[in-house]
Specification:
Radius of gyration: 12 Å
Number of helices: 1
Shape: globular
Length: 63
């Protein structure tokens, strides 16, 4: 199961670049840095901690 890379902040609706900074909770609720800061790093939906969303490489990494 892959992480859902949501394209917009769930609070302010501003767009999020796939390789840009964003914050997620364990349910993959997604927020921009400004909204995450305004919510003191807590998800308003589940109350969980918001952590930095991992970034995907532009090209798949070949092992």
């Amino acid at each position: 199961m892959a992480l859902a890379m949501k394209p917009a902040c769930e609070r302010c609706k501003n767009g999020l670049a796939m390789d840009g900074k964003a914050f997620i909770c364990s349910y993959e609720c997604t927020f921009c840095p400004a909204c995450s800061d305004a919510m003191a790093g807590r998800c308003p939906n589940c109350g969980g901690e918001l952590v930095a969303r991992p970034r995907r490489a532009e090209q798949p990494v070949v092992a």
